[in-house]
């Protein structure tokens, strides 16, 4: 295989790419999409039935007339729903299409006695059967929430399509029904009842059958998803966690993100030798790994091969977020994927850190001001805290969270105070008040996870909103100053996305493209803290370690980006905090903890 060469844009590209997925599933999926659209159009629009395109549509699955129009719409909707699964080579989508197309052929012959329709339907079935070996992808992890999502999405689509059906016969309408009357008619029709809108001739039957078919389709698909066997997303088992901890004990000092592999909402694949592993989560069909593989570098290819085999078996899109330059080189060499520089990790060497000097003046003045206000800091290992204090810290971190949902995936552990995480470091700020709050004198919390035996990596930062500004700076300085006594020589801070572009774009001589790119990043920082995290990290004069995203194709980047935002908690479907019931935080145990972490300022 050819070597990878990093260019000046931060991209690692192979000269010779690996094999790409076969095109047959994509062609079949496109054909099903076309057939579905034509079937829906043939069942909905009267004028379409007299167009040239109808000559094609009338010999595809579905036919005309009240019953046949409903059949055409149902068949078309099902084919549209199946197209995505066929494109991803899903075995169950293939089975459904194999059953649906002969059913459409039978309907053609029984209702319209169309031999051509039967031939066309079976002709569409032929490539499915011939290339059945291409459709071997296993189903995705699923839960009962899929049924609710199906009801909302398909129900909304049925409502909109129903409005089109009701309004597609203007010359047959009796009177001039209002929009509310039409919506009411659609809602009644989806449930199988007659609504307030009336038509002349047989159009009433056509509309009624079509709406009833849409309602039945919504109900059947929702019931199927609700009562099919549940396969929840994989979780890190006790055995998996034990194996990962053994690898981290030997090789945990190589990657600052290694300990985050112990998140219990991740799955893991091990190399055949058991000396390396890759942890991941599946989000919206993307198999999303984070950081470098865990374990011996020599065994990484075996773990990566298992990862790619798993992605191939389920037709998931493989991607890696936040791997190091070494990790990116191994991933691209072993898989034929590409790597793109995503940003930089801020790493502070404890021996080089000092508050002295002009460059640290702002941080120094802020820390002195807060200390004069009566704040004090404590930096300890988790194992040195009492259970009562840990309970108070956990509740405070939950209450001080600034978003409705927890954020974090690639650089967040997702828990505080687990007995198995005794080596984690916690820095707290305290201020004795005359009127203490619900958490006593606690005002801010920083949580760090181990990075080998001589380093820590920042996990989460939380503070009381009523506390003085600068709590995070105070605690980071406190942690860096206490590090030598704890045997810590390096501290990894936050990850700064697109740091190089932000830094170069503000310098004199930057070109118009770079300045425009920086301007866009500054604009996006209103929602994603891109610029603020970079500036916060830069206060401590760190060295910058580049991090990369590994992907299969440029066209996958938007999908990978959306999946990463879902995993990190920036995009979610959770209820607002005010509408959620507050749950008591359970006592932590080695393999069941409810809290989530966040790695953002």
Automatic annotation (TrEMBL):
GO cellular component: plasma membrane
GO biological process terms on file: phospholipid homeostasis
Highest taxon listed in the record's lineage: Bacteria
Alphabetical UniProt keywords: Cell membrane, Membrane, Transmembrane, Transmembrane helix
Subcellular compartments: Cell membrane
Membrane topology according to the record: Multi-pass membrane protein
GO molecular function: aminoacyltransferase activity
Residues that span the membrane, as ranges: 23-45, 65-86, 145-168, 205-227
PANTHER family: PHOSPHATIDYLGLYCEROL LYSYLTRANSFERASE (PTHR34697:SF2)
Protein name (record): Membrane protein
Organism per entry: Streptomyces avermitilis
Taxonomic lineage: Bacteria, Bacillati, Actinomycetota, Actinomycetes, Kitasatosporales
């Amino acid at each position: 295989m050819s070597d990878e060469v990093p260019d000046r844009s931060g991209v690692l590209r192979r000269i010779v790419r690996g094999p790409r997925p076969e095109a047959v599933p994509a062609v079949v999926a496109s054909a099903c999409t076309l057939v579905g659209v034509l079937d829906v159009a043939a069942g909905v629009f009267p004028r379409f039935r007299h167009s040239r395109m109808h000559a094609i549509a009338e010999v595809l699955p579905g036919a005309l007339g009240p019953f046949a129009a409903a059949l055409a719409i149902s068949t078309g909707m099902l084919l549209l729903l199946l197209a995505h699964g066929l494109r991803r080579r899903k075995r169950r989508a293939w089975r459904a299409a194999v059953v649906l197309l002969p059913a459409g052929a039978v309907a053609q012959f029984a209702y319209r006695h169309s031999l051509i329709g039967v031939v066309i339907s079976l002709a569409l079935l032929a490539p499915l059967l011939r290339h059945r070996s291409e459709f071997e992808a296993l189903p995705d992890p699923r839960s009962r929430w899929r049924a609710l999502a199906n009801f909302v999405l398909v129900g909304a689509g049925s409502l909109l399509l129903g409005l089109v059906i009701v309004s597609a016969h203007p010359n047959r309408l009796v009177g001039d029904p209002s929009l509310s009357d039409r919506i009411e008619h659609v809602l009644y029709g989806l449930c199988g009842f007659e609504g307030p809108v009336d038509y002349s001739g047989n159009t009433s039957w056509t509309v009624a059958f079509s709406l009833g078919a849409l309602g039945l389709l919504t109900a059947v698909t929702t019931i199927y998803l609700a009562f099919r066997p549940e396969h929840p997303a994989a979780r890190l088992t006790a055995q998996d966690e034990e194996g990962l901890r053994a690898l981290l004990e030997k090789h945990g000092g190589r990657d600052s993100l290694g300990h985050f592999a112990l998140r219990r909402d991740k799955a893991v694949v091990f190399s055949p030798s058991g000396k390396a592993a890759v942890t991941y989560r599946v989000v919206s069909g993307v198999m999303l790994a984070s950081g470098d593989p865990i374990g011996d570098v020599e065994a990484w290819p075996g773990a990566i091969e298992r990862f790619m085999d798993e992605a191939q078996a389920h037709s998931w899109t493989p991607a890696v977020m936040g791997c190091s330059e070494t990790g990116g080189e191994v991933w691209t060499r072993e898989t034929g994927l590409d790597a793109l520089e995503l940003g930089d990790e801020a790493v502070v060497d404890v021996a080089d850190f000092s508050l002295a000097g002009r460059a640290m003046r702002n941080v120094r003045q802020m820390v002195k001001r807060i200390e004069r206000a009566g704040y004090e800091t404590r930096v300890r290992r988790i194992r040195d805290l009492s259970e009562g204090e840990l309970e108070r810290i956990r509740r405070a971190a939950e209450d001080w969270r600034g978003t409705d949902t927890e954020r974090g995936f690639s650089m967040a552990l997702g828990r505080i105070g687990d007995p198995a995480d005794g080596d984690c470091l916690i820095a707290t700020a305290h201020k004795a008040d005359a009127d203490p709050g619900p958490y006593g004198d606690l005002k801010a919390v920083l949580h760090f996870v181990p990075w080998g035996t001589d380093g820590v990596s920042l996990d989460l930062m939380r503070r009381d909103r009523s506390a003085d500004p600068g709590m995070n700076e105070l605690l980071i300085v406190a942690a860096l100053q206490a590090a030598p006594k704890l045997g810590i020589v390096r501290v990894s801070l936050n990850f700064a996305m697109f740091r190089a572009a932000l830094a170069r774009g503000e310098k004199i001589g930057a070109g118009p493209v770079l300045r425009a790119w920086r301007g866009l990043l500054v604009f996006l920082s209103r929602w994603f803290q891109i610029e603020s995290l970079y500036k916060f990290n830069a206060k401590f004069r760190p060295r910058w370690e580049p991090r990369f995203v590994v992907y299969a194709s440029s066209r996958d980047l938007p999908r990978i980006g959306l999946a990463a935002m879902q995993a990190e908690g920036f995009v979610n479907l959770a209820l607002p905090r005010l509408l959620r019931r507050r749950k008591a935080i359970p006592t932590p145990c080695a393999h069941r903890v409810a809290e989530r972490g966040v790695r953002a300022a």
